[in-house]
Amino acid sequence: MADLTGPSGSTANPPPMLRQFATLVRIGLASATQYRANFVLTSVGAIFYEAVSLAFVGVIVHAFGSIGGWSFVEVAFVYGIRSTGHALHGLLSGQLWMTEDVVRRGEFDRYLLRPVDPLVQLLTRRFQITAVGDVVFGVVVLSVTAVAAPVDWSAGWVAYLVAAVVGSAFVESAVMLALASSTFRLLDASALLGVADRVFVTFGPYPLSVLPRAVGYLLTFVLPLAYAAFFPAAILLGRTNDLFVPTWLALASPVVGLLLYAGAVRLFHRQVRHYSSPGH
After folding, report:
1. By C-alpha distance, which of 266, 230, 268 is closest to 249?
2. Where are the alpha helices (DSSP H) in the chain?
3. Half-sphere exposure of 110 (CA within 13 A, CB side)
4. Which of 11, 57, 183, 229 is the most buried (most CB within 10 A)?
5. By the 8 A CB rule, do 80 and 138 touch?
6. Which of 127, 138, 137, 210 is closest to 168 using CA atoms?
7. Is residue 175 within 8 Å of residue 88, measured between CB atoms?
8. Is the dihedral of CA 80, 224, 19, 159 positive or negative?
């Protein structure tokens, strides 16, 4: 592992989490690209997978003409925000799926002994190669649909779109991190992660206004999927009449994502106290 203890080698004041994360991601990327064929094929495979998912959305919109009055371009715009945010989530938190293995095998013991935040080590234990393909596909789809969408773009709205994508990544990462944190108590949170992931995949690309209001509230205040794509897209497209929350709350989606992730990080560090080494 690279030296993360500072120029003096002292472990008293390790570098901030963000710098630790950036350093370890860079190391992971360098390691992953050593096997170039695997790196390229895995990335291309991820692009094809996302392309098939978008094609499925297109088939549904074509069959019904629109979804709740949303055209294909508008639905694809929601998909673009969601897929790009999901790609960034993969880069940030893709390794959360391995939390159970890390805990059961005692790998977490090593994390606690190193002068690097345990959460950073968990998130960067492997580089998520599929996220590279996801990023490429998401950026292309979002760029194309942003041009085609009926949005009067300005510098402010472009900045909001970027913030919405980052906020989308934080929303999904916050949910998955909070659920993964339960591993320290339950030992196996894979079922919870699977359910949450399925909800994001199933409902994420669509305007949630077509769902029953009770389901919309559930996907806003219990599992906050609405902040990941639908709310920002509705704001940018001027479809505020489709919102089932105050406009200011939908507009604040990027901030909500950041706050949720900060809370999930705090929860993770609290749950670590319940970790019991399998060697004990």
Report:
1. 230
2. 17-32, 36-64, 72-93, 99-104, 107-113, 118-123, 130-148, 155-181, 183-186, 190-203, 213-221, 230-236, 247-251, 253-271
3. 9
4. 229
5. yes
6. 138
7. no
8. positive
Residues 118-123: contacts with CB under 8 Å, at least 24 apart: 118/272, 119/17, 119/265, 119/268, 119/269, 120/17, 120/20, 120/21, 120/24, 121/24, 122/95, 122/96, 122/98, 123/21, 123/92, 123/93, 123/95, 123/96
Whether 90 and 134 have beta carbons less than 8 Å apart is answered as yes
- The pTM score is 0.87
As beta bridge partners, residue 67 has 70
Distance CA 230, CA 67 (A): 13
Q: Is the dihedral of CA 185, 119, 43, 30 positive or negative?
A: negative
Rounded to a whole number of angstroms, the CA Rg of the chain reads: 20
**pLDDT tens digit sequence for 208-266:** 999 999 999 999 999 999 999 999 999 999 999 999 999 999 999 999 999 999 999 99
Q: How far is CA 117 from CA 27, 114, 168, in A?
A: 16, 8, 24
Q: At what angle do helices 190-203 and 155-181 cross, to 10 degrees?
A: 150
Distance CA 46, CA 78 (A): 19
